[in-house]
Amino acid sequence: MTEHREPNLTIFQELAPSLKNNLPAALATVVLSQGGFPAVTGMKLLVHPDGSYLDNIGGGVLEQKIIEDTLNSLSENRSQLVNYLLREGGTNAIGTMCGGEVQIFIEVYQPKPTLLIVGGGHVGQSLSSIARELDYQIKLVDIDPNRGQVFEPDDITGSTYVVVVTEDAANDEAVVRAALPTPTPYIGMIGS
After folding, report:
1. Using CB atoms within 10 A of its CB, is residue 22 exposed (0-12), middle (13-18) or buried (19+)?
2. Ordered per-residue pLDDT tens for the chain, 192 residues
């Protein structure tokens, strides 16, 4: 029978504000532990994008590999099940002689996506209303400083979706060109 450990509640107390404030985090959980490994099923490790973490999953080389893989999962926004063999060689081996096998489920928590609407006219306003219903964070900006907040490409992150609906093609092109080198996963545009 596999030993099971209840999770440290401090992890959830630290995870809750991250979720509430739309900050990314990842939770690595031991789902299988066999052989020479000190962690047991249910142990958890909370990892933040800056590499800081809370609690432990056995320490040493394995824990550093888990943190590295968790940071990669965060950057790729991808939850995954990872298998580690505590051996010196072979597929999934981490270079230790402990023997055994560990499976870790890495669960990624990312902020709600932001829909950045560039163009504060009637199309931008209508799109903003629809996107609120779809649970996006909305940021409505314009290219004209007289109509409120102005478009800043530096504000675009990997969870920012950009839609360009300005009043003329030259402005649309300028915004799209500025948005292309950013980490946005999507740029959309309509034309009149």
Report:
1. middle
2. 445 555 567 888 888 888 888 789 999 999 988 876 677 888 899 999 999 998 888 777 778 888 999 999 998 889 999 987 776 666 766 656 666 778 889 999 988 889 999 998 888 889 999 998 888 889 999 887 777 788 889 989 888 999 999 988 888 999 999 999 999 999 999 865
Output the CA–CA distances (angstroms, integers) from residue 42 to 1, 25, 31, 157, 187, in the order listed. 14, 18, 6, 33, 41
